[in-house]
Every structure is written in C-alpha cells, then in structure tokens.
Amino acid sequence: MITDLVQIRMLGEKKRDENERFRRHMKSRDYSDRILRRIAEGIEGQIDCTLCANCCRVATATVTGRDVERLARALRMKPERFLADYTDESEEEGRILRRTEESGCIFLNGNECTVYEARPDSCQKFPHVVRGAGSIASRMWQFADRACYCPIVYNSLEAFKEQLKFTK
Ligand code: SF4
Ligand code: SF4
Q1: What gap in Å lies between CA 23 and CA 39, rounded to an integer?
Q2: Is the pTM of this model over 0.70?
Q3: Could you report the per-residue pLDDT of 115-126, keeping only the tens digit for each?
Q4: Is the CB of 49 under 6 A from ligand 1?
Q5: Which of 10, 87, 112, 134 is most buried, with most CB under 10 Å away?
C-alpha cells in the first residue's frame, strides 16, 4: 500500500495511460462489482483521510442547492450570503466551493474540514470508488486523474488490475 503523496503523484502520472486503458477495458468486460467494492473498502479502511486531506487541497468540490442550504444553516447565514462568500461559478463544473492558492478549499484548516458535518455530498462520497451511483466502471472516468493525488484511488486501481489479471 502506497500512501506517500509524492510517490502517488509520480506513479499516478507514470500510469496515467495504463489507467485510462484499464478504464476502457473495464467498460467492455463483465466483472463483479461486489468483489471490487469489497477490495476498495479494504483499502479505504487502511487509509486515514484525516492525515491526508489531499483531495481538499487539489480537487474542486461541487455544491448542489441542498448542500448550500445545509452549509448555510451550519454557518448560521442566509443561503444567498453563503453563495456570495464561499462559492464560485466554474465554467466546467458549475457551482463549486471557493478555493485559495495556499490551502485549496476555503473550509480546509490544516488537514481539518471545518464544516465536516455539513460538507457537500460530493465530499462525502469522495473519491467515489466505494460510494456513488451506478457501477464502479461507470464512475471511473476521473480515476486516472485522481490516481495522481488520492492514495485510495491509486491503490484501488492497482488492486483491481491484479484481481482482474489486467495485462499492463
Ligand atoms: S479521499 Fe483520497 S485524497 Fe482525499 S483524504 Fe482520503 S486518501 Fe486523501
Ligand atoms: S468542504 Fe471539507 S471535505 Fe469538502 S473539500 Fe472542503 S475541506 Fe474538503
């Protein structure tokens, strides 16, 4: 199991093409989602996200209307005020949590999410290997990218390839 973030970045980039090939391979094959999910759960169980928080530094977090209401309530402010003070509109992703150059998500303090109980649904399900709608294969379109910064995704993909005897 590799958890060092420098190594994850290097290996994820090195395997980017291979991981893309694996994603296409998964889409065209029959496999047991249940087995892959169990493998990913095992990996997730061995990684402490509170020691990592790399996704909060690197990735954007999208917010739905329901997320905005929940977060605004938690921060005791009106949703309109929350939208203006804590979110931005992204051309590709729509409404996202505001980010800063230094620390990533505006709600990240060190490695701690300061709105953890009210965090957006997209954060709760991240990195979308174990949790999410549909099959694992249907959620794989961003995994080659996430394998460059998320230890859960990197190690899950490696374990999936081994389980399915994917030719590297
Ligand atoms: S989901 Fe991945 S990147 Fe985010 S904190 Fe957990 S291991 Fe780190
Ligand atoms: S809301 Fe919390 S969990 Fe989501 S990106 Fe920001 S700091 Fe991370």
Answers
A1: 17
A2: yes
A3: 999 999 999 999
A4: yes
A5: 87
Ligand 1 and 156: CB distance under 6 A: no
Continuous segment of H or E residues that includes residue 52: none
Encoding tokens for residue 11?
A: 């290996």
Residue nearest to atom 4 of ligand 1 (CA): 55
The 10s digit of each residue's pLDDT in 36-77 is 999 999 999 999 999 999 999 999 999 999 999 999 999 999
Strands 104-105 and 112-113: unpaired
Half-sphere exposure in the Cβ direction for 114 (13 Å, CA): 9
Considering the domain architecture, whether residues 11 and 46 belong to the same structural domain is answered as: yes
* Pocket lining: 126 vs ligand 1, CB cutoff 6 Å: yes
Look at residue 168 and tell me if it is in a domain.
Answer: no
| Total domains, the chain | 2
Query: By residue range, what is the domain housing residue 71?
Result: 60-122
